[in-house]
Design a protein that fits this description.
Mean pLDDT: 81
Shape: globular
Strand order of the largest sheet: 1-2-3-4-5
Largest sheet: 5 strands, mixed
Helix content: 25-40%
Number of helices: 5
Number of strands: 5
């Protein structure tokens, strides 16, 4: 429902490729309310981690690899507990290196982020 309201259409759920599995692939529709889509990316990949523990740098690196393999430049990681605390700088470095290498953007969204938006923050 959220995707549709933003002008996104989910194209694939749990897409299995020869090398990996992608949780969601969404495509920007012509009537998207997000102005950066037509200029930046037509598709985006979504990784969902509903884990009690944070996602480590390896998981972030794997997701960035999926983006590179599919030539998608925009990705969302929904990680309930965020990215790892001790390795956080490493995980953030993976995201920064991904952007520096090919201009790809990865956004990490936590459960706290979702709750804040739901509360109107």
């Amino acid at each position: 429902m959220l995707a549709h309201s933003l002008g996104l259409r989910v194209e694939y759920r749990r897409l299995t490729t020869l090398a990996s599995e992608i949780d969601l692939v969404a495509e920007a529709t012509a009537d998207t309310d997000l102005p950066f889509f037509p200029e930046y990316a037509r598709f985006l990949l979504v990784e969902c981690k509903n884990w009690a523990s944070p996602l480590g740098a390896k998981g972030v690196r794997d997701f960035c690899g999926k983006m590179r393999d599919t030539k998608v430049r925009l990705g969302l990681i929904f990680a309930k507990s965020g990215i790892t605390g001790r390795e956080r700088r490493v995980a953030e470095g993976v995201i920064a290196n991904n952007f520096q290498r090919d201009g790809s953007i990865v956004v990490v969204i936590t459960l706290a982020d979702v709750r804040a938006v739901a509360a109107g923050e």
